[in-house]
Structure prediction request, 225 residues.
Amino acid sequence: MPGMSSPRAVGQAGVPDKPPELLVAGSVALDTRDGPFGKVKETLGGSAVYFALAASLIIPVKVIAPVGEDGAKSLAQAFSGRRIDIDGLAILEAPTYRWRAHQEHGRNVDLGSSDSIYDHWAPAVPEGFDGWVFVGSMRPDRQAELAELLSHVRLLAADAMLSYVQARPPEARMCCAGRVGSSATRKSSRPLGAMIRMSSGGSGGSRALSSKPDRWASPRTRNTA
Prediction:
């Protein structure tokens, strides 16, 4: 329509002329979900995947995430030709993170997730990186670890899921409360908790995590409000 800008143009208009480097740390998932409109089985998802694909339309982005050998090919295909730096991607001999759900009456019933890959992953960040960072949804102990490693950057935002907070309260609450890094090194005037978006939907969204690695978490209904 005349006078209407594309979403990409709108996004680019909000980026500074000389933007800092952008980095996302998050999950790579293989999602299985069914509902009234059909079913998908082990389709690619995860917070790092969605953020990177969207951000790469506007600005180059670096990715830090773990993925198993069983998900690496799908991820490579999704990122092919995009402005996505995968030097921080760890391909591990462990099952890629899995999430399962069923949709009922417009709500997702969480059927659980399998997260043993996080036990094999040691997060690391690019040396000297101080740009913009988004720490996406992942197992809260790893999310808190990354927030600590990146507490010195110019902008640090995060995405936290209510079911994650409920399933692993110590690490998740530490991250959401902004208890990462020191007051001397954090440049933001607001605590991390003020920048965290609580989400409950999508394959990069709310997931119920087992308190034990590599176990399917108890089913629960996710709040989609």
